[in-house]
Prior knowledge:
This protein has 256 residues and is α/β, with parallel strands linked by helices. 29% of the residues lie in helices and 20% in strands.
Amino acid sequence: MTVGKVYLVGAGPGDEKLITVYGRECLERADVVIYDRLVNRKLLRYAKPDAELLYCGKEPGRHDTVQQQIHEWLVEHARRGKTVVRLKGGDPCVFGRAGEEAETLARAGIPFEIVPGVTAGIAVPAYAGIPVTHRDYAASLAIVTGHRSERIDWKALAEGCDTIIVYMGAANLPDICRRLVAAGKPYDTPAAIIERGTTERQRTVAAPLAALPAEAEKAGISHPSIIVIGNVVRLRETLQWFSEHRGGEAVVYTES
């Protein structure tokens, strides 16, 4: 039997229109679609009527177990000659574990392609009126995970980057802000947290860094969220263009 092929496809940050043309083409010809919790379900309508749809959403504490199952599914279906799409939120190579899945496929001798997607760390701030770089405010950018803080050099991050983007950080927001201030980031650095970005349920809270956790808690901000820290957040007052969810009023940053 001819071995199939696996496409590791980025679905984009939430808005279904932000999937790439090639990503949609892969989805349209897939025999099997293995999709994540953060994938917009509307994208599944592009799959063939007889395509097998396998949900692999990860719940807290079960990531490694589910990831092993995903590896097994990818290899199993490809060995049956199927065209498989592994559909991931955002970009598959930005905290999407595409590297691990590609390694598994390479070891098994399964052909694969990585199809980049629009990553949430860039797109979500843009939908909130925050460009992550700007000639006057930011010449450097760092992207970090919010749930493995012990592996981050907080001093280097606080002192060496104009804009900091944090993925998966909503639950640890107080600790993230505390660590950055302790490492030398000014307590009044503009910051924002954006919930369910690029969707009709998007909400944004903006505040000075030290005050952001309390303001986010007051607004009931949860995950999925992207955190943005840096002077580019000031631009939100001028550049906000996307109509956000009712009840998602921003706490606008003002200089003290």
